[in-house]
Amino acid sequence: MLISNSCWVIFTLVFPALAIRQTPDFASDALGLQQIQQHGNATLEKRDDVPAGFTTPPYYPTPKGGWVASWTDSYAKAAEVVANMTLAEKVNLTTGTGLLMGPCSGNTGSALRFGIPNLCLQDSALGVAQTDNNTAFPAGITTGATFNKALMYARGYALGQEARGKGVNIQLGPTIGPIGRKPRGGRNWEGFGADPALQGFGGSETIKGMQASGVIATVKHFIGNEQEMYRMDIPPHGLMKAISSNIDDRTLHELYAWPFMDAIKAGVGAVMTSYNDVNGSANSQNSKLINGILKDEFGFQGLVMTDWLAQIGGVSSALAGLDMAMPGDGSIPLLGLAYWGYDLSTSVLNGTVPLERLNDMVTRIVAAWYQMGQDQDYPLPNFSANTADATGLCYPAALLSPTCVVNEYVNVQADHANVVRNVSREGITLLKNDNTTLPLTTSASLKVFGSDAQNNPDGINACNQRSCDTGVLAMGWGSGTANYPYLDAPIDALKRKAANVTYYSSDTFPSGLTAATGDIAIVFINSDSGENQYTVENNHGDRDGSGLVSWHNGDALVQAAAAKYATVIVVVHTVGPIIVEPWIDLPSVKSVVFAHLPGQEAGDSLTDILFGDYSPSGHLPYSIPVAESDYPSSVGIVGFEVTQVQDTFSEGLYIDYRYLNKNKTSPRYAFGHGLSYTTFSKSSITLTSITPLSSLPPARAAKGSTPVYSSAIPPASEVAWPTGFNIISRYLYPYLDDPASISSSTPFTYPTGYQTTPQPDPPSGGDEGGNPALWDIMYNLTVTVTNTGTVAGKDTVMLFVQYPSDSPYDTPIIQLRDFEKTDTLVPEGSETLTLSVKRRDLSVWDTVLQNWVVPVSESEPFVFWVGNSSANLTLACESLNGACSSGRTPPVV
Ligand code: BGC
């Protein structure tokens, strides 16, 4: 029952007539106005099947951008340009030209009079997708496992450099939602880990790096996109609606929106909405989420775009705060039909969409373009996501397209392989290492098992967007991938490094093998997942088929090796947790290494660790439970329902370690667990109060001014076809055949709650990222880390907050709020790290006050736990007296 966008692409390409006949309301309505009217209120439809209590109230109008100090210059430049734009130019920038109607995954129209080209929007979060001569970086989950903010930034910067080099204006990453609520969720690996603070730091450091290169970063997917299956509407809208993620207000703020706040605080230029509904309201036109939370509470100044083909209404989405429709098509692509484009021209001319809303959309887009300096020597796209050939159709979806030079094969790799290797190596997480089995000597007799150690025999890029699990798993599948320029397979690196390596590439243990004394078996296993448009080995994006069990009978392979060899090392490439119980306690399974998804440097980054050139310093970005059933059933994949799949987040704030702690369930390996070849001590811990606690943040300042434009409806002639215009069929234009006939008398039923008077400034807002006081440092904690072992290594310090025991808010027992990693410490070397606790870190979202409240207590302290996993908390400081101590019993098992 899964229908994905790519299925529709194929369907409509092959059977365009059928596609039209199946959806008469869409096809017959050339201007799409009927659709708008029909679905304009879709956000506000009451659907009985969304459980009671999960609401999404209307929030209108859209707060205009431009009032935040750090964007003032860019808005001033944008305002000057937008004031002189025609209606056609404005509409052009808001609407994609259509799927396969340009070189990139998404392409806007242009405003060439002002030097603004068709903007190129291109995946992915781990490299420039669907091109050549690029770098395939480690996935987000690997980056999260480094717990190294500097590396997160370095990877982001290199990603941005490559995007810029290819002429990408808007990079479609980083992914910070899904957060990983569901261990089986298909796209968790694109993000940084199952914790809002880890996602927040991972996302914001990536954004800062990307945007320092001049590319506009896009955080996605806002919000509640925690499972892949049933993520999209099946067109026509209303037949079967996209899954509804039913999330309560507090959970939304403290868990799912938290990293998006960080992203906005970091100055992100674009946000992509997700396919799913939240509380029964489609996210592409959810006024509460876009107008209310993103743009008012969080003070977002950039542009909001849809996910691909997620738009379900024209006026409704415009009023709800959407700024850019991607890839521009209506629900059914490739027909030349749109909700915006020409239809946005109509609805502005007839007064349905206020001109000031369109002006705000365009100003946000142009301001983001200036904010990243794209007016200065920014390259045009020099690649095509549609073909690898040098020349090809300029507009592949057109009935007749001219031919262009589409690929210039620009090499953008620079020295980024070093960044890849550093991140992959530092992400490698050593879970178990009995008898100091690791590191290995290069003279050891190594017997290597499993197809995951080698490259796909059909070619490293043989499967479209990595939609197969053949050979070493170095990224998941779907749009969040990039082509490998090369893939350094583990077996090749092992053979380069060690003298005595024998490889058995089958996933079935070879019969008749005899182990010699001293032989060491290294067994490679994996677990894959990805995006819903591909089904891989019966997994529909999510790991619905495999569960958390290693693929290709990996457990049996480990067990068989363990029966034969006295020393077994298991290397796991995985998108997320797998259950390791079938073999973890077998006596010969001495070492377990999670190498996550390493990208192109899968080989050397691994041997760097296996042979001790570097000590491992990665930490688990999620917990590994003993059994999947240790988590609540609400985080399982939700199955088919006829009209709309309901996914109710009834576990609230309690995902991953927060849930396990609440239920006193010990995991097999805790969130943050990761061993080293050396040992560290922590000493001289201090806690310094920086800002006095108060329960409410200081009042915010009023918003600054925003650009003011003429309110006169522009002349209809501004969207007439230019004389002699060469029309490309199915391309989405802003032009109308007879614009003068548009009258303003068409009645339009606005959504319930629609208003044009601005809402009062929300108390929790005030700047990018919300009330600036939320980012005030309340406490600094310093701790000295000393390498007490015999080899060099890096240590990570994590800070978890425990709320006062008399807090009236039910809150997870501990929550990660900050982390820092040392540089490489030689034996006896030491470094003092500073970790910070900000006001938001001590706050809960009070749903009545609609503000962040610190549960300040006169008698009970906040406790700041310091350790290197959620289950290894060795030091604690108290807020009230500032005292720090070791040896205190942690509050969690
Ligand atoms: C994905 C997005 C991606 C877009 C463009 C969608 O299917 O959900 O993450 O950026 O396609 O490729």
Report on the structure:
The chain folds into three domains: 57-380 and 391-411 and 714-741, Glycoside hydrolase, family 3, N-terminal domain (TIM Barrel, Alpha-Beta Barrel); 428-624, Rossmann fold; 680-697 and 776-886, Sandwich (Immunoglobulin-like), CATH 2.60.40.10. It contains 20 helices and 28 strands. With 893 residues, it is α/β, with parallel strands linked by helices. Residues 1-48 have low confidence and may be disordered. Belongs to the glycosyl hydrolase 3 family. Residues 747-758 have a biased composition (Low complexity).
How far apart the termini lie comes to 42 Å
Strand numbers in spatial order across the main sheet: 1-2-3-4-6-9
Helix content: 10-25%
Assign the CATH class of the largest domain: Alpha Beta
Oligomeric category: single chain
Number of discrete domains? 3
Structural class: alpha/beta
Map the helices and strands.
Blueprint (H helix, E strand, L loop, with lengths): L4 H10 L1 H7 L1 H4 L5 H7 L32 H11 L4 H8 L11 E2 L12 E3 L17 H7 L2 H18 L3 E2 L24 H17 L3 E7 L18 E6 L2 H8 L1 H8 L4 E4 L3 E2 L2 E2 L4 H11 L5 E3 L9 H6 L21 H8 L5 H17 L19 E3 L9 E3 L10 H12 L1 E5 L11 E5 L40 H8 L2 E5 L15 E8 L26 H11 L3 E7 L14 E6 L7 H9 L33 E5 L7 H7 L17 E10 L87 E11 L8 E7 L12 E7 L8 E9 L5 E3 L4 E3 L9 E7 L2 E7 L5 E3 L7
Parallel strand pairs: 2-3, 3-4, 4-6, 5-7, 5-18, 6-9, 13-14, 13-15, 15-16, 16-17
Antiparallel strand pairs: 1-2, 7-8, 10-11, 12-17, 19-20, 20-23, 21-22, 21-26, 24-25, 26-27, 27-28
Bound molecules: beta-D-glucopyranose.
Beta-D-glucopyranose binds next to loops.
